[in-house]
Amino acid sequence: MLDYKLLHALATVIECGGFERAGDALGLSQSAVSQRIKSLEVRLGQPVLIRHPELHPTPAGQRLLNHYQQVQLLERDLRTTLPTLGESAPRLRIAINADSLVTWWADAVGELCRAEGLLLDLVVEDQDVGLKRLRDGDVAACLCASPQPIAGARCVPLGEMAYQPLATPDYIARHFPHGPSIDAFRQAPAIVFGPHDQLQHRFLAQCGYHGSFPYHLCPSSEGFVRLALAGMGYGMIPQMMQADALVAEGRLASIAPGESLSVPLYWHFWRHSGNVLERLTRALGQVTLK
Amino acid sequence: MLDYKLLHALATVIECGGFERAGDALGLSQSAVSQRIKSLEVRLGQPVLIRHPELHPTPAGQRLLNHYQQVQLLERDLRTTLPTLGESAPRLRIAINADSLVTWWADAVGELCRAEGLLLDLVVEDQDVGLKRLRDGDVAACLCASPQPIAGARCVPLGEMAYQPLATPDYIARHFPHGPSIDAFRQAPAIVFGPHDQLQHRFLAQCGYHGSFPYHLCPSSEGFVRLALAGMGYGMIPQMMQADALVAEGRLASIAPGESLSVPLYWHFWRHSGNVLERLTRALGQVTLK
């Protein structure tokens, strides 16, 4: 059996952002906290924390924290049946695509989190890579575009998010005066979320264009819309992200009216992480995407 | 002298998201592109690309790409004085804090980017760590909270962003019925941007509380506001991010009226990355933060 006192010290150091604060929280001296981290590292044969330039867990430390969290989730269920055990509030680590996080996510899970005192540790991942985090045991659940099931996990489809290629009317007049064309696609600056984001490539392939094109990289959903609104490029913007309102106000328009892309979303989670994940899954089942 | 044909192949593979597409863009066969990447790796004695599960540069590959970009920036200046050389559009890699990206950034730089055909590669970093990227040569400029100058770079102060601790009125009635207190801070769920984010800790220290507290982790500025609006916690929200409007509408309120935090912002950039950075710096000088 692992010594959970040591894991608790590790989690507290990360949570509090330092050894001294962790000591205060645990009612221990700073050196007692250091000693616990050291014991963990000796047992593991490798470091669990990187101290400089800023405090963060090593990959091994992250695995330990994730395991600690899963054990806490199981304890949470136990406490439901044995309420005299007292209360705790573990954080549930979830990988999520940025566009869901800035649109429907909080409304879907807010009520459950409030009612159960559930805390989330959200990790933003491109929709095509979050699943790897789940497979690696780095998160307890993952919301992503891949339907591929992984051993030991369940996969629940949630629907699809629709994306349209939007830009300012000025931008369209400058770069697409004659509508979409191979020449225009080759020269018009686009906005791409990140190096793993294939939405823009998929959209261009759908329009019959397979070459290279100039683009900004902007790994923030809201920042992405801001760049589009400033006339810096066109980008695939989710309909749920005020796109309809921005189009209705005349601030954005489609560079290729009628063209859109749908991205399916799937919820993957470990089967044995406890009932709270089942309840979260039920809450997500109520969502209507578009 | 480096063989820039090889660096160009590497940049194109990353831009196009694959060897086949890069071949199309370069007018080469897929195997000719592979051969160029391989030559680069042989010369360097280590891989520049990771192919599975998704294509991305290794840290060494990233350094090469950054160097390639800096050389392109210098070429851009050269082209201004020798216009017959033809045109190119390198991407400028910049580390930026998330809250700037979703508020004032695009309006400040949009006009310059449009006028010069300048493309950005934005890397979102916590305000306290972006500088490390600049020091490592991973970005050409960095917008962050640290005034600490680094050798070879200039540092320009841009002003301060103000943050207030906001939550829904319901949340405040539930968790802070008698206003802020040590007991309330110990139990009320907060929202923290990420493990490097010290804003919440600074705010609590300012209120005289130094212990641990429950919190969600949400590394997305807009997602952060969504969690607050869903009543999941209170969080430090920038005034520039519609905070005043949300407070005026009664959707959010301060848990500690009168308390706020100011985060200074500084623009750091390499001195010898070309004139475009000078012009970008002038554009940023026009910004009024609050």
From TrEMBL, chains A, B:
Keywords: DNA-binding, Transcription, Transcription regulation. Residues 2-58 form the HTH lysR-type domain. SUPFAM superfamilies: Periplasmic binding protein-like II (SSF53850), Winged helix' DNA-binding domain (SSF46785). InterPro entries: ArgP, LTTR, LysR_HTH_N, LysR_subst-bd, WH-like_DNA-bd_sf, WH_DNA-bd_sf. Belongs to the LysR transcriptional regulatory family. Gene3D superfamilies: 3.40.190.290, Winged helix-like DNA-binding domain superfamily/Winged helix DNA-binding domain (1.10.10.10). The keyword Protein biosynthesis does not apply. It holds the Pfam family LysR_substrate. One of its GO terms (molecular function) is DNA binding. It comes from the Bacteria. This is LysR family transcriptional regulator ArgP.
